[in-house]
Design goal:
Helix content is 41%, strand content 12%. The chain is an alpha/beta fold. The chain has a single domain (27-282), classed as Rossmann fold (3-Layer(aba) Sandwich), CATH 3.40.50.
């Protein structure tokens, strides 16, 4: 059983002839708790969408002002906002919003839920990406809860009346994670990002406060990072580029066929959140024109 419940009468699978976008471009909005979360989980897919002329927006629900062991507060938030904008430029995506909620203090309040509803509506989203609600970090968990709570509400006219409701519910998808309890990630979709892997690494390198400082030195037990730029890039690729998990490999085989799936080195995978629209597989292939 998935972690979300089906809301009767709302999530109806559409036939293959249904429109796949709210307008003439597919519009994707990806939520993370911190500046760098969306890049890690969906940077490759974002770059692929953008390269095809579709529109992608990243949102960090906190400003990242506690995400370092030597810096903090407003100075760190300013640095991380600038890094996020550079990461967006490297990926070729349209926008990256960093909300002014404190890192480590996020709660699933009504006010933050309204922020999420407003952003999804203003982006006119067709696809919404977020973490699952099972995670070591409370900001990650609450980002998931906030997006889930917004899923149905984006359709309701009398909620957040300053932003017009969507005509139909987007497809909501969870990012891959490695947590096993209360239930493991179960990939419904897996997408090769081999062709944009270097772009994804470029985005990581645009955020040195995280990938070369906080993650290895603060949270990683003081891991030494090479100082030579070329060696540092190799170190980053090895650290951030594990092979797809067996379940993801099975999903790759479903979408690409067994032979092509065997050759994939780097993939991003997603699981349905059933609060969103229940698109048919045929419609999903149109919404995800990434499998050539």
């Amino acid at each position: 059983m998935k972690s979300c419940l089906i809301v009767a009468g709302i999530m109806v699978a559409l036939g293959t002839g249904a429109a796949v976008a709210q307008d003439n471009k597919i519009r994707v909005i990806a939520f993370g708790a911190h500046p760098d979360d969306a890049e890690i989980r969906a940077g490759g897919v974002a770059a692929k969408f953008a390269a095809k002329g579709h529109l992608v927006k990243f949102v960090s629900v906190t400003n990242g002002d506690a995400g370092h062991c030597e810096q903090g507060g407003g100075a760190l938030a300013k640095r991380r906002r600038a890094e996020a904008q550079e990461a967006a430029r490297k990926l070729g995506i349209a926008e990256y919003d960093v909300l002014d909620n404190h890192d480590g203090e996020l709660l699933p309040t009504l006010e933050v839920r309204k922020q999420i509803i407003r952003l999804i509506r203003q982006w006119n989203a067709d696809i919404v990406l977020s973490p699952r609600p099972y995670d070591y970090h409370p900001d990650h968990r609450y980002t998931s809860i906030l997006v889930q709570d917004a899923a149905f509400m984006v359709l309701i006219p009398m909620v957040v009346t300053d932003a017009p409701p969507l005509r139909r519910n987007p497809v909501f998808l969870y990012y891959e994670d490695g947590f096993r309890k209360p239930q493991p990630f179960s990939p419904d979709i897996a997408i090769s990002v081999d062709d944009v892997w270097q772009k994804k690494l470029d985005a990581y390198e645009a955020e040195p406060s995280q990938f070369y400082e906080a993650q290895p030195k603060c949270w990683g037990g003081g891991v030494d990072v090479p100082t030579d730029p070329a060696e540092r890039r190799k170190w980053l690729e090895k650290r951030r580029g594990p092979a797809p998990e067996p379940a993801v490999r099975q999903a790759l085989a479903k979408w690409y066929g067994p032979e092509k799936a065997k050759a994939v080195r780097h993939a991003e995978a997603f699981e349905f959140c059933e609060y969103g629209r229940r698109a048919s597989e045929a419609e999903l292939k149109k919404m995800l024109p990434l499998f050539e």
